[in-house]
Here is the input.
Amino acid sequence: MSELIIRPITEADQAQWLPLWRGYQVFYKVDLADAVSAATWARLFDPNEPIHGLVAERDGRLVGFTHHLYHRHTWAVEHSCYLNDLFVDPEQRKQGIAEALVRAVKADAMARGTPKIYWLTHETNTAGRSLYDKIATRSGFLHYSMRG
Here is the structure.
């Protein structure tokens, strides 16, 4: 098996990122409008946005990605890092790619002086939760959402 490379996303990655992004939406049973996908893509490269992206690449092909963002927090002086999205091509799973991406987000956060990384996942994501239970601590907080 060839080397896995974790690196920052580049604008040249769009053609390979988009099918993964759509696969992520299928996994979570959502269908985001094209305008949302376009805005997400643009934000990844806007220096005024706190959103960052990393990709996992093997043999010149993207096999996964993560999007994470930095924000202020009322419980700490330092920023927090929210791992917003994490997805690995279903054909590439069980090879350590998701863990490598999470660890790369952690390394990026630590380099920025950001000691807290957190994320959410759906309760039915048993494969993801199996990994997360090994590498992180479940906070005990429940997620609530409200739309206006």
Notes: The radius of gyration is 15 Å. The first strand starts at residue 4 and ends at 8. The beta strands are 4-8, 51-58, 61-71, 80-88, 116-118.
